[in-house]
Amino acid sequence: MMQKKLSHIDESGNATMVDVSQKIASVRTAIASGTIKFPSEVFKSLSDQDFVGKKGSIVQTAVIAGIQGVKKTAELIPLCHQINLSKINVEIEPSLDAFQITCTVKCNEKTGVEMEALTGVSIAALTIYDMCKALSQDIVIGAIQLEQKTGGKNDFQR
User: Fold this and answer.
1) Burial, 56: exposed, middle or buried (Cβ in 10 Å; 0-12, 13-18, 19+)?
2) Which residues does the UniProt record annotate as the domain Molybdopterin cofactor biosynthesis C (MoaC) (predicted)?
3) 3-state secondary structure of 150
4) Which of 63, 112, 62 is closest to 89 using CA atoms?
5) pTM of the predicted structure, to 2 decimals
6) 130 a catalytic residue
7) Which of these is catalytic: 10, 130, 138, 155?
8) What is the full per-residue pLDDT of the chain (158 aa) written as tens digits?
9) For residue 37, how far is the Cα from the chain centroid?
10) Fewer beta carbons under 10 A from the terminal one: N or C of the chain?
């Protein structure tokens, strides 16, 4: 059985960017999700205002922030490759005292877009928190995870 090893650590234990120069470009997608949960009374208040606060539309601002976050992933995560993205979709849906955030990212590259999808969800959630923190600090960001990835050596489905 082949033992897996960390791809961003070299034989000497130093951080390194993975060399993808010999890989073949292929269509790659990743879907990540997360939640941001509110106290019931805060979420009801937001819902009663159609999720528009003093800073504007909470959902639309978070969607734009999530898209920007995806585009900036290589600047935020030190060992990520800069890649040309072909599609970014951020969806934010209200549920029971929470928002469910989903980010789908697609490219035709030599490396995947998992980190970009996860960053999109994270930045969208942080933006919602920022826009709502005046109402409560008892807002919980959680369950940020990769749901699916396709392309490259291995596909993944949660």
Assistant:
1) exposed
2) 17-152
3) strand
4) 63
5) 0.91
6) yes
7) 130
8) 556 777 777 777 777 777 787 888 999 999 999 999 999 999 999 999 988 877 789 999 999 999 999 999 999 999 899 999 999 999 999 999 999 999 999 999 998 899 999 999 999 999 999 999 999 999 999 999 999 999 988 899 99
9) 17
10) N
